[in-house]
Amino acid sequence: MAFVSMVIVWIVIAAVILGLLLMAGLILLIVGIVGKVRAKNAGKKSPAVCIILGAVLLALPVFTAAGLGIWGISSCAGTAFQRTTYECVPDRWRNEWVMDSQAEEDIIQALLSSADSGDREAFSRNFTPELQSKAGFDQAVNAFFAAYPKGFSGCEQKDKSGGGSGSYNAGHNVKTYSTHFNTTLDGNWYYISIGFCYDNTDEPDKVGVTNFKIMNLEASAVFFDEYSRNMDYGSDVYLLCDIRSSSEVSARLIGGEPLLWTPTDTPKLTADQMRELLAPYERLDDPALMKTIGTANASRKYVNCSWFEYYYELASENGEPLYACIHTHSPFDEPDIPYGEILSAYVGTSEKIDYDRSLRPWEDGGNEAQGE
């Protein structure tokens, strides 16, 4: 992005200089012509000098603009012709400079549209030649298409997030990017992630998609449960379409996150009842509290974080499922103590955690935010 900013700055500076030359040339040309026709300047050389100098100054920006126009047209024509020879999006990356946002948009569309059309060949070409040459690549593609539910290319991409990295060394560039989002197809929730390299000047065989995963809610819950304990989990899988049934895996979407779910017989409290119940307690493992609310329906702790996340089902409101989302402290010197000191507690829905509805009365955004 810094390179793009510098290019824009230089273009602006060049445009200002050419504009000044154009204005100066026009002024000198007018002054020279006016002076030439005045009788008092008869025999003087200054009007002619002004006309010549003005014409030269006018010619510089005019010819420059014309040259740039011709170059631009020929370049666009050449690029358009060259693009007709591209077989896939990574072909463009190997031959043209692209921004990460454009590369992201293009590869998402290319993968999903080719998958929806069932074109295995077009789909496969989007992956790096390095991956395509690996043993087992064709089998991975066949397994993906066997599980793939068509229709994602027309779905809304929600909660999209991404980031990239790059190394630059005297024209020897390597630029990578990863993106993920969720979407809904036929009423079912899915998680989609894509990683790709869109520039590698020294090793073009590494340009293309490096990983592509599609998982439904149940499969995502299993994946992220494993990932929370091992941050390298799934890093060796470059192509995956994992669809699991609700009879195989019990899962819920809470705060936009897929979680493994364990049903319990604990009575479902309202949000107000849960707030009142939590008020006197500092720890979630207090025996009196645990006797009432029992174990959580879902939980998660990432290995690189110092807290546990616990989720309890609450009584629904207006037909919408509600959850108590509770964070407890896990000291680094005792990282495996569950149900410890309560750090925060909020009401959550399937889509979000509502930080304006605290279940701890003394916290900002608690009772005051609800008008209690």
Account of the 3D structure:
Helix 1 (2-37) packs antiparallel against helix 2. The chain is elongated, with a radius of gyration of 32 Å. The strands form 3 sheets. It has a 5-stranded mixed β-sheet with strand order 1-2-3-4-5. The chain has helices spanning 2-37, 46-83, 89-95, 100-117, 120-125, 129-132, 137-147, 217-229, 271-278, 287-293; strands at residues 158-169, 172-185, 188-200, 208-216, 239-242, 251-254, 257-260, 298-300, 307-317, 320-329, 342-348, 353-358. It is 40% helix and 26% strand. The chain contains 10 helices and 12 strands. The protein is an alpha+beta fold and 372 residues long.
Which terms summarize this structure?
372 residues, alpha+beta, five-stranded mixed β-sheet, five-stranded antiparallel β-sheet, 10 helices, 40% helix
User: pLDDT under 50 segments (min length 5)?
Assistant: 77-82, 364-372
Rg (CA only): 32 Å
Task: Report the major sheet.
Answer: 5 strands, mixed
Distinct helical segment count: 10
Widest β-sheet, arrangement of strands: 1-2-3-4-5
Strand content: 25-35%
According to DSSP, the number of beta strands is: 12
Apparent shape: elongated
Q: State mean pLDDT (0 to 100 scale).
A: 86
Secondary structural class = alpha+beta
What is the terminal separation in angstroms? 49 Å
Question: SSE order, as H and E?
Answer: HHHHHHHEEEEHEEEHHEEEEE
Helix content: 25-40%
